[in-house]
Design goal:
Largest sheet: 5 strands, mixed
Number of domains: 1
Shape: globular
CATH architecture: 3-Layer(aba) Sandwich
Helix content: 25-40%
Number of helices: 10
Bound molecules: oxa(dethia)-CoA
Order of helices and strands: EEHHEHEHEHEHEEEEHEHHHEE
CATH topology: Peroxisomal Thiolase, Chain A, domain 1
Structural class: alpha/beta
Length: 336
């Protein structure tokens, strides 16, 4: 019998807008303070795209970096998945726009909507596709421009969100790879986090007018309680499926929504803070981009070495959650 193919991440990349929106900038826009935002969320600043820019712009940038580090030519891609809740438009899918931009003519392409859990949802699809032998090279992208759906008159949400993209190339690996994925959803909680209508670039002149429902509305407290419960549960289930004990995890990369949620989840899992990667202070919550952006920075900072066991875990709108356990098998092309 043929040996089971194991899928792994071959290369990672990310891209964020240059413009920085600090807590002090927000103090001038709504009734808030750097002190409130820092202590309640851990966020100090976030990146904001220009109104005319679209998600595909950052998705393609992140993708090109990931492909380069994976040593994979775009022409080798079989499939591109873009996880996003802020697509360029409803049709064509953002993944098709990226396919054209990076010149990957052999790749099928579709978008996946699972809010902040989207990257790990897409990773699950990619891993199963590679393991089944259907695909050899899958590009998984998490990209969101949340500033385009943020109401900058609502202090309870506008301090939280930012823009960015992260990408990973998935393919067969000989060592390490993705040991498990675990996805879940509870649609009954959907009303707790909604974007009722959508138009990319809603902050611009062609966008939605206030009151047209094009903004994120959230029951923050409710989502907070859900997150603190579901993050450790999801991570533990993924670890159980992988046959890995929590104490054997080298780095825990949680969805970067709020430092208090991250700390509470790590405490419940019994994981010390030095094993938890945090960059929420720099980018805020970038939804589907959050986990691959954090993974890319962790690699950049040398926080992950070959053979390390890494846990990715996210939660978000839907409500959804997703976790994955992987053993890092190294990028083909070294960084530097
Ligand atoms: O990717 C998934 C997306 N969502 C999340 O992960 C969000 C999960 N939720 C959270 O992170 C937190 O619930 C928030 C950061 C959104 C809010 O923190 P909280 O500690 O739950 O605050 P709260 O909503 O209970 O509000 C406490 C107080 C309220 O004032 P009163 O009623 O006590 O007088 C709010 O009006 O803080 C007030 N408040 C603010 N004050 C200053 C809410 N937002 C702000 C603000 N600046 N930006």
């Amino acid at each position: 019998m043929a040996e089971k193919v194991r899928a792994g991440i071959l290369g990672v990349g990310s891209a964020v807008p240059e413009r920085v929106l600090t807590n002090f900038d927000l103090e001038k826009m709504v009734d808030t303070s750097d002190e409130w935002i820092s202590t309640r969320t851990g966020i100090k600043e976030r990146r904001i795209a220009a109104p005319h820019e679209r998600t595909s712009h950052y998705a393609a940038k992140a993708a090109s970096k990931a492909l380069e580090r994976a040593g994979v030519d775009p022409s080798e891609l079989d499939l591109i998945i873009v996880a996003t809740l802020t697509p360029d438009m409803f049709c064509p899918p953002t993944a098709c726009i990226v396919q054209d931009r990076i010149n990957a003519p052999q790749a099928a392409a579709f978008d996946l909507s699972a809010a902040c859990s989207g990257f790990v949802y897409a990773l699950d699809v990619a891993v199963r596709g590679v393991e089944s032998g259907a695909y050899r090279r899958v590009l998984v992208i998490g990209a969101d421009l949340l500033s385009h759906v943020t109401d900058y008159t609502d202090r309870s949400t506008c301090v939280l969100f930012g823009d960015g993209a992260g990408a990973a190339v998935v393919g067969p690996v000989e060592k390490g790879g993705v040991l498990s994925t675990y996805l879940g959803a509870d649609g009954s909680g959907g009303p707790k986090l909604t974007v009722p209508a959508y138009r990319a670039g809603s902050a611009g002149p062609d966008g939605c007018a206030p009151g047209q429902g094009c903004y994120i509305r959230m029951e923050g407290n409710e989502v907070f309680k859900f997150a603190v419960r579901v993050m450790p549960e999801a991570a533990l289930e993924a670890l159980r499926r992988a046959g890995v004990a929590p104490e054997d995890v080298d780095l825990f990369i949680p969805h970067q929504a709020n430092i208090r949620i991250i700390d509470a989840a790590a405490k419940r899992l019994g994981i010390s803070s030095d094993k938890v990667f945090v960059n929420v202070h720099k980018y805020g919550n970038t939804s589907a981009a959050s986990i691959p952006l954090a993974l890319d920075e962790a690699l950049e900072q040398g926080r992950i070495s070959e053979g390390d066991t890494v846990v990715l875990v996210g939660f978000g709108g839907g409500l959804t959650w997703a976790a994955s356990v992987l053993v890092w098998s190294g990028e083909r092309v070294p960084r530097g």
